[in-house]
Structures are given as structure tokens and as C-alpha cells.
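Journal club prep, notes for RB
We'll compare a predicted complex against what the paper describes. Inputs for the pyridoxal-5'-phosphate case:
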Amino acid sequence: MDAPVSAAGESLDRLLAAELDGLRRTGTYKRFNTLCSPQGPVVEMAGRGQVLVLSSNNYLGLAARPEVIEAGVEGLRRYGAGTASVRFICGTFQPHHELERALADLAGTEAALTYVSCWNANEAVVPSLTDEGTVILSDELNHASLIDAIRLARPARKLVYAHSSMDELREGLRSCERGQRKLVVTDGVFSMEGDLARLPDILELAREHDAVVIVDDSHGTGVMGKTGRGVAEHFGVVGEVDVITSTLGKALGGAAGGYVAGSEEVCDLLAQRSRPQLFSNALPPTVACSALEAVRILRREPELVARLRAVTASFRARLRELGFAPLDGEAAIIPIIVGETSFAIRVSELLLEQGVFVTGFGYPVVPEGRARVRVQMSAALEDAHLDRALEAFGRVGRELGLI
Ligand code: PLP
């Protein structure tokens, strides 16, 4: 029999139920759609049948690539489920080292260190590189994991600059005292806008002011640059960014996991000091092996990146022809601003009824009145998929007076 819930527990549950009701009333309650097939351009969704996916981060279509699956299965067979502890206590597996070498080469850094998520990687690197005098300068649209990482770091001073405002970043850097450690922290590709950090300008300012640059390239890895090495490749500055963090949960196989890429010293210090490394298990070997295979595929098939770029440019142009106004951008994220949160959710519901899965995002993820549907492209999308998706967008757009 279940243990009886305490009075305090019951009263907490009542409060939480009221909060959840509030989310339902304001139309911001999130429901999980259940998938009954692997992630791909088309999935089997419970209660919906076959649905076209335009909202995953499966940018290169590697989540269900046979070699990626096989590598994971082989990793599971060879190494079992996991380390059953923290790496320094219980050991690490060979594939962890191989993956970290491959990730460092991809990022163009001396070394890399993996974590069970990029969220963890960010929460590891920012606090570990912050000392009592550090100033952190952060773009206002940075990902939640960076925002929380900065809170956790408790720097001497935190300066949030307006999105991509190099004037505010310059002012912030000028306001720092000599000798103070300065960390400039930015997304490489901003996940809600789909635009890029002004990396060459950021690097120049950082050099002028002796600051360290940390870039979270989760939406740029496998996407940006001719061969998918990320925003640094896009801007021709591979090897110049001090620290890059990224995820294995998007283009690089889509399972889970993240990493920090940087100098030997940065990665070694993180292995020694960062709490998510010291107090949490390693990546399961199945994930390490499938991610390693995903990196290898990316390195030998840059045409996947070219296909992703072509598909994204074509879809954006055809949305415009239909009368939509997608935001400009060079990454594989195409946001269409529609206004109110409930309206964005309505657009995404109608699209799903038409067999197209595109998520609507509203307040508080994006500012009030700037709710949007966020289309994400994948190299695995075929031309026929795009035609079908555009027909659905056309029908929904006309029905709701969007076009
Ligand atoms: N950083 C950015 C920019 C992201 O978009 C995400 C995921 O949404 C993360 C970090 C977190 O990645 P992970 O799922 O590996 O924790």
C-alpha cells in the first residue's frame, strides 16, 4: 500500500494543482506528443498517424541513421549500460576518449570533455572559470542553461547586454577593472530567433579587453560552416574561440549529452573541479558510441550540411512566396512571428491537424506579443515532404488570415 501523503504534502499538491490550472487557462500548458517510431522527417504519432516533423533538432537526420543505431547497440554490447559511477571513481570507457578527441578536432580546440547534457556542460564551465573577481558579460537572449550557469557561478558582477549589441558589450568591457577576469558568454546560434552571434566582433572586443569568449554552439554544430564545424567555421575563426560548448542531442545523433571544447588546461581543470563531472555519471557508452559515429558521418559527408542549407533556404523562400514573413537567418531555424501565445499554439495545432508538427512558442520563452511558430529544418527532409508541409502552411495561413 502507498504511504499516506502528509498534510504538508497535500497542501503543496493543492497549490501546485492551482498553478497547473493557471497554465491550462492561459493556454501555456505543454503536452507531450507520443512518438511510436524513431525521430525522422516523418514519424508515427500516437492518435495522429504519420506526421511530418518540422520541429526537431535532428538537423542532419542522424538520429535514426542505421550506422548511428548500430554503433550505439555495439557500444551497449561491448561496454554494458554504463560506468555505474563517476568517471574518476570508477573509470571511463575507451569510446569516451575517442569521442572527446573527435569533438575537439571538430571544434578546432586542443581538447574536449563530455557531460550528460549541454545543460550540464554549461553549468560546469561557467562556474568553474569564475573566480571571486570575475565579471560575466552575457547576451540577453542566451539559452536558459547559460543564464542558470551564470546564476550558479555568482560572479563579482554580471552584465547582460542587449541582444547582439556590440556597443553595450564594449561599454561593459570598458567598465571592468584591469586584472579582473572577464567572460563573454553567448549562444552561437540563438535558438528562438535563429540568428547568429556577431562572433568576429565579439572576438575582436574580447582581444582588446583581454576577455575570454565562451560560445554555446548547440544549434550551430553540424549546421553552420561549410563542413558543419559550427559558427566559428561559418565566420572563418576556427581555433580562435576560447571555449565552445555544444550538445550531442541535436545534429550529432540527437540522443543526449554535451561537451566543452577548449584548451588542455580548461578541460583538465573541468575534469578536476566541475561539479557535474565530479558528482555525476559519464555518458552511457551507447550514447558515446552513437555520437562518435555521428561525428564521423558529419566529417565524411559534408554534403549533409549542404543539403540542410539548401533545404532551409528553399523553405524560407517558399514561405515568403506564400505570404508568410519568416525571420531572416542563416541557421536551420525559421521562426514565424504570429503575435499572441494562444495564437501561436492555435497555428501549431492546426498544422498538426494537417499532419505537420511545428511547435508554437510564447511568453515567457519569448517576449509578450512575439509568440511564434519555430520551423526547424533537417537534411533528411525530401522535396516531397517540403511540398506537403507548404501546402499545410498555405491552408492554415489562409484559414487564420495569416497570409
Ligand atoms: N544550449 C542551447 C543553445 C540549447 O538550445 C540547448 C537545448 O535546447 C541546450 C544548451 C541544452 O542542451 P542539452 O539538451 O544537451 O542539455
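Talking point for the session: The domain at 66-300 is CATH 3.40.640.10 (Aspartate Aminotransferase; domain 2).
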